[in-house]
Design brief:
Elements lengths: L5 H18 L3 H6 L4 E6 L1 E2 L8 E2 L1 H14 L5 H8 L9 E8 L3 H13 L3 E5 L12 H10 L2 E4 L12 H19 L5 E3 L10 H9 L4 E7 L11 E5 L8 H6 L7 H7 L13
Parallel strand pairs: 1-4, 1-9, 2-3, 4-5, 5-6, 7-8, 8-9
Helix pairs in contact: 3-5, 7-8
Length: 278
Protein backbone atom coordinates (compact mmCIF):
# COMPACT_ATOMS: atom_id res chain seq x y z
CA UNK A 1 0.00 0.00 0.00
CA UNK A 2 1.47 3.43 -0.85
CA UNK A 3 2.05 5.98 1.91
CA UNK A 4 -1.00 7.90 3.05
CA UNK A 5 -1.35 11.66 3.48
CA UNK A 6 0.23 13.05 6.68
CA UNK A 7 -3.11 14.38 7.95
CA UNK A 8 -4.75 10.98 7.63
CA UNK A 9 -1.72 9.21 9.11
CA UNK A 10 -1.62 11.36 12.25
CA UNK A 11 -5.40 11.37 12.65
CA UNK A 12 -5.57 7.59 12.54
CA UNK A 13 -2.61 7.21 14.88
CA UNK A 14 -4.20 9.57 17.37
CA UNK A 15 -7.45 7.63 17.22
CA UNK A 16 -5.73 4.25 17.69
CA UNK A 17 -3.72 5.54 20.63
CA UNK A 18 -6.82 7.02 22.25
CA UNK A 19 -8.72 3.76 21.94
CA UNK A 20 -5.69 1.71 22.98
CA UNK A 21 -5.02 3.84 26.05
CA UNK A 22 -8.45 3.27 27.56
CA UNK A 23 -9.69 0.14 25.85
CA UNK A 24 -8.28 -2.86 27.69
CA UNK A 25 -9.74 -4.38 30.82
CA UNK A 26 -8.01 -3.71 34.16
CA UNK A 27 -5.86 -6.63 35.33
CA UNK A 28 -8.36 -7.91 37.97
CA UNK A 29 -11.15 -7.97 35.39
CA UNK A 30 -8.95 -9.87 32.93
CA UNK A 31 -8.26 -12.50 35.57
CA UNK A 32 -11.96 -13.25 36.08
CA UNK A 33 -13.15 -12.91 32.46
CA UNK A 34 -13.50 -16.05 30.32
CA UNK A 35 -10.43 -16.52 28.10
CA UNK A 36 -10.63 -15.42 24.47
CA UNK A 37 -8.34 -15.53 21.45
CA UNK A 38 -7.27 -12.46 19.53
CA UNK A 39 -6.16 -13.02 15.95
CA UNK A 40 -3.53 -10.47 14.97
CA UNK A 41 -3.32 -9.26 11.37
CA UNK A 42 -0.03 -8.27 9.73
CA UNK A 43 0.63 -7.50 6.07
CA UNK A 44 4.17 -6.65 4.94
CA UNK A 45 7.57 -6.17 6.52
CA UNK A 46 10.19 -3.56 5.74
CA UNK A 47 10.59 0.22 5.82
CA UNK A 48 8.01 2.43 4.17
CA UNK A 49 7.09 6.01 4.99
CA UNK A 50 3.58 6.39 6.43
CA UNK A 51 2.47 2.94 5.31
CA UNK A 52 0.46 1.49 8.21
CA UNK A 53 0.64 -1.99 6.71
CA UNK A 54 4.45 -2.20 6.41
CA UNK A 55 6.00 -3.09 9.77
CA UNK A 56 9.71 -2.75 10.48
CA UNK A 57 11.30 -6.12 11.22
CA UNK A 58 12.79 -4.80 14.46
CA UNK A 59 9.32 -3.88 15.71
CA UNK A 60 8.02 -7.34 14.78
CA UNK A 61 10.96 -8.91 16.62
CA UNK A 62 10.10 -7.05 19.83
CA UNK A 63 6.45 -8.00 19.54
CA UNK A 64 7.17 -11.69 19.00
CA UNK A 65 9.70 -11.69 21.83
CA UNK A 66 7.03 -10.31 24.17
CA UNK A 67 4.43 -12.79 22.89
CA UNK A 68 6.81 -15.70 23.46
CA UNK A 69 7.61 -14.51 26.98
CA UNK A 70 3.89 -14.33 27.77
CA UNK A 71 3.27 -17.81 26.28
CA UNK A 72 0.08 -16.56 24.66
CA UNK A 73 0.63 -17.75 21.08
CA UNK A 74 -1.52 -20.61 19.78
CA UNK A 75 -1.64 -22.34 16.36
CA UNK A 76 -4.57 -22.30 13.95
CA UNK A 77 -5.62 -25.80 15.00
CA UNK A 78 -5.69 -24.59 18.59
CA UNK A 79 -8.02 -21.78 17.59
CA UNK A 80 -10.26 -24.24 15.75
CA UNK A 81 -10.47 -26.47 18.83
CA UNK A 82 -11.17 -23.49 21.09
CA UNK A 83 -13.84 -22.18 18.72
CA UNK A 84 -15.58 -25.57 18.63
CA UNK A 85 -15.45 -25.95 22.41
CA UNK A 86 -13.08 -28.92 22.26
CA UNK A 87 -10.21 -27.15 24.00
CA UNK A 88 -10.32 -24.75 26.93
CA UNK A 89 -7.76 -22.02 27.54
CA UNK A 90 -6.51 -21.05 30.96
CA UNK A 91 -5.91 -17.49 29.77
CA UNK A 92 -6.21 -15.34 26.67
CA UNK A 93 -4.48 -16.61 23.54
CA UNK A 94 -3.13 -14.95 20.40
CA UNK A 95 -2.96 -16.27 16.83
CA UNK A 96 -0.57 -14.48 14.44
CA UNK A 97 -1.78 -14.12 10.83
CA UNK A 98 -0.16 -12.43 7.84
CA UNK A 99 -2.16 -11.42 4.77
CA UNK A 100 -1.22 -11.14 1.06
CA UNK A 101 1.92 -13.28 0.75
CA UNK A 102 4.49 -10.49 1.00
CA UNK A 103 8.05 -11.57 0.16
CA UNK A 104 9.15 -10.13 3.50
CA UNK A 105 7.56 -13.12 5.22
CA UNK A 106 10.44 -15.33 4.05
CA UNK A 107 13.14 -12.69 4.54
CA UNK A 108 12.03 -11.18 7.84
CA UNK A 109 8.92 -12.53 9.54
CA UNK A 110 9.42 -16.29 9.38
CA UNK A 111 12.98 -16.29 10.82
CA UNK A 112 11.69 -14.16 13.71
CA UNK A 113 8.69 -16.43 14.27
CA UNK A 114 10.96 -19.48 14.25
CA UNK A 115 13.42 -17.87 16.62
CA UNK A 116 10.70 -17.26 19.20
CA UNK A 117 8.68 -20.41 18.57
CA UNK A 118 5.55 -18.56 17.46
CA UNK A 119 3.08 -20.45 15.21
CA UNK A 120 1.50 -18.38 12.45
CA UNK A 121 -0.73 -18.45 9.38
CA UNK A 122 0.13 -16.80 6.05
CA UNK A 123 -2.95 -16.05 3.95
CA UNK A 124 -1.61 -16.02 0.40
CA UNK A 125 -3.08 -14.54 -2.79
CA UNK A 126 -2.67 -17.67 -4.88
CA UNK A 127 -2.72 -15.92 -8.24
CA UNK A 128 0.18 -13.64 -7.27
CA UNK A 129 2.76 -16.29 -6.39
CA UNK A 130 6.04 -15.14 -7.88
CA UNK A 131 4.81 -11.63 -8.67
CA UNK A 132 7.12 -8.71 -7.74
CA UNK A 133 7.19 -8.36 -3.97
CA UNK A 134 5.32 -11.61 -3.39
CA UNK A 135 6.43 -15.03 -2.23
CA UNK A 136 7.23 -17.53 -4.95
CA UNK A 137 5.66 -20.97 -5.07
CA UNK A 138 8.99 -22.47 -3.99
CA UNK A 139 9.16 -20.14 -0.98
CA UNK A 140 5.60 -20.98 0.06
CA UNK A 141 6.40 -24.69 -0.23
CA UNK A 142 9.53 -24.32 1.89
CA UNK A 143 7.78 -22.23 4.53
CA UNK A 144 4.98 -24.78 4.78
CA UNK A 145 7.51 -27.60 5.13
CA UNK A 146 9.19 -25.67 7.94
CA UNK A 147 5.92 -25.24 9.84
CA UNK A 148 4.19 -22.07 8.63
CA UNK A 149 0.47 -22.70 8.08
CA UNK A 150 -0.76 -21.57 4.67
CA UNK A 151 -4.29 -20.25 4.10
CA UNK A 152 -6.07 -18.72 1.12
CA UNK A 153 -6.52 -15.00 0.56
CA UNK A 154 -8.37 -15.71 -2.71
CA UNK A 155 -6.96 -16.05 -6.22
CA UNK A 156 -6.87 -12.39 -7.33
CA UNK A 157 -7.85 -10.41 -4.18
CA UNK A 158 -11.37 -9.20 -5.03
CA UNK A 159 -14.08 -8.25 -2.55
CA UNK A 160 -15.81 -11.63 -2.31
CA UNK A 161 -19.24 -10.15 -1.60
CA UNK A 162 -19.07 -7.57 -4.41
CA UNK A 163 -18.52 -10.03 -7.25
CA UNK A 164 -20.95 -12.52 -8.84
CA UNK A 165 -21.42 -15.74 -6.90
CA UNK A 166 -19.96 -17.82 -9.74
CA UNK A 167 -16.76 -15.78 -9.68
CA UNK A 168 -16.60 -15.90 -5.87
CA UNK A 169 -16.78 -19.68 -6.04
CA UNK A 170 -14.04 -19.69 -8.67
CA UNK A 171 -11.83 -17.50 -6.46
CA UNK A 172 -12.36 -19.90 -3.54
CA UNK A 173 -11.92 -23.13 -5.49
CA UNK A 174 -8.96 -22.18 -7.66
CA UNK A 175 -7.00 -20.49 -4.87
CA UNK A 176 -7.40 -23.56 -2.67
CA UNK A 177 -6.44 -25.94 -5.47
CA UNK A 178 -3.37 -23.92 -6.44
CA UNK A 179 -2.12 -23.61 -2.86
CA UNK A 180 -2.70 -27.28 -2.11
CA UNK A 181 -0.68 -28.19 -5.19
CA UNK A 182 2.15 -26.04 -3.86
CA UNK A 183 2.16 -27.11 -0.19
CA UNK A 184 0.99 -30.72 -0.63
CA UNK A 185 -1.60 -30.56 2.13
CA UNK A 186 -5.11 -29.31 2.72
CA UNK A 187 -5.76 -25.57 2.80
CA UNK A 188 -9.02 -24.97 4.68
CA UNK A 189 -8.68 -21.48 6.19
CA UNK A 190 -9.59 -18.30 4.30
CA UNK A 191 -9.08 -14.58 4.93
CA UNK A 192 -11.42 -12.19 3.13
CA UNK A 193 -9.68 -9.56 0.98
CA UNK A 194 -10.33 -6.16 2.61
CA UNK A 195 -12.63 -7.79 5.17
CA UNK A 196 -15.02 -4.87 5.75
CA UNK A 197 -18.72 -5.49 6.32
CA UNK A 198 -19.25 -5.04 2.57
CA UNK A 199 -16.77 -7.81 1.70
CA UNK A 200 -18.28 -10.91 3.33
CA UNK A 201 -21.64 -12.29 4.38
CA UNK A 202 -23.90 -15.34 4.53
CA UNK A 203 -23.78 -16.05 0.79
CA UNK A 204 -19.99 -15.96 0.68
CA UNK A 205 -19.81 -18.13 3.81
CA UNK A 206 -22.00 -20.73 2.12
CA UNK A 207 -19.74 -20.67 -0.94
CA UNK A 208 -16.60 -21.12 1.15
CA UNK A 209 -18.09 -23.98 3.14
CA UNK A 210 -19.12 -25.67 -0.10
CA UNK A 211 -15.58 -25.34 -1.41
CA UNK A 212 -14.07 -27.17 1.55
CA UNK A 213 -13.05 -24.34 3.86
CA UNK A 214 -13.86 -24.58 7.57
CA UNK A 215 -13.16 -21.03 8.77
CA UNK A 216 -12.71 -17.50 7.43
CA UNK A 217 -11.35 -14.30 8.92
CA UNK A 218 -12.52 -10.71 8.48
CA UNK A 219 -10.88 -7.38 9.31
CA UNK A 220 -13.51 -6.60 11.94
CA UNK A 221 -11.89 -5.98 15.31
CA UNK A 222 -12.62 -8.08 18.36
CA UNK A 223 -11.88 -11.38 20.13
CA UNK A 224 -12.79 -14.91 19.11
CA UNK A 225 -14.99 -16.76 21.59
CA UNK A 226 -16.22 -20.37 21.61
CA UNK A 227 -19.28 -20.91 19.45
CA UNK A 228 -18.78 -17.91 17.17
CA UNK A 229 -19.73 -18.24 13.49
CA UNK A 230 -16.60 -19.79 11.90
CA UNK A 231 -16.90 -17.84 8.63
CA UNK A 232 -16.94 -14.34 10.11
CA UNK A 233 -14.13 -14.44 12.65
CA UNK A 234 -12.77 -11.09 13.87
CA UNK A 235 -9.14 -10.06 14.04
CA UNK A 236 -7.07 -7.18 15.45
CA UNK A 237 -4.88 -5.20 13.08
CA UNK A 238 -1.27 -4.46 14.03
CA UNK A 239 0.07 -1.34 12.32
CA UNK A 240 3.41 0.32 11.71
CA UNK A 241 4.03 3.50 13.65
CA UNK A 242 2.38 2.30 16.86
CA UNK A 243 4.33 2.77 20.11
CA UNK A 244 5.67 -0.33 21.86
CA UNK A 245 3.26 0.01 24.78
CA UNK A 246 0.25 -0.53 22.53
CA UNK A 247 1.10 -4.09 21.46
CA UNK A 248 0.67 -5.79 24.87
CA UNK A 249 -2.53 -3.84 25.38
CA UNK A 250 -4.08 -4.82 22.06
CA UNK A 251 -3.25 -8.47 22.81
CA UNK A 252 -5.37 -8.01 25.94
CA UNK A 253 -8.25 -6.25 24.19
CA UNK A 254 -7.31 -2.57 24.00
CA UNK A 255 -8.40 -2.30 20.35
CA UNK A 256 -11.48 -4.51 20.54
CA UNK A 257 -13.52 -1.32 20.66
CA UNK A 258 -12.26 -0.35 17.20
CA UNK A 259 -15.06 -2.58 15.88
CA UNK A 260 -17.35 0.41 16.42
CA UNK A 261 -15.29 2.26 13.81
CA UNK A 262 -15.43 -0.79 11.54
CA UNK A 263 -19.22 -0.83 11.75
CA UNK A 264 -19.70 2.91 11.44
CA UNK A 265 -17.41 3.51 8.45
CA UNK A 266 -17.78 0.33 6.39
CA UNK A 267 -19.82 2.15 3.73
CA UNK A 268 -16.94 4.53 2.96
CA UNK A 269 -14.23 1.86 3.03
CA UNK A 270 -13.83 1.11 -0.66
CA UNK A 271 -11.47 -1.67 -1.83
CA UNK A 272 -8.11 -0.55 -3.14
CA UNK A 273 -5.89 -2.52 -5.48
CA UNK A 274 -3.51 -4.66 -3.43
CA UNK A 275 0.01 -3.38 -3.92
CA UNK A 276 2.89 -5.88 -3.77
CA UNK A 277 5.69 -4.67 -1.54
CA UNK A 278 8.76 -3.39 -3.35
Amino acid sequence: MPSIRPQRWYAKKAARLAVGAVGSLPAPARETAAPVVRVLTYHCFGSARRDPFCLDAADFERQMRWLAAQRMAIPLDGLRAFLAGRQALERDGVLVTIDDGDAGIARHAWPILQRHGIPAVAFVIAGELGAPGRLSAAEVRRLAEEGLTIGSHSLTHPSMARIPRARAREEAVLSRQKLEEVVGREVTAFAYPYGTLADFGAEVATILAGCGYDCAFTSQHGPVRPGMAPFSLPRVKVEAGDPDWLFPRLCHGALDGWRLVDRALWHVQRPQVAQPAA
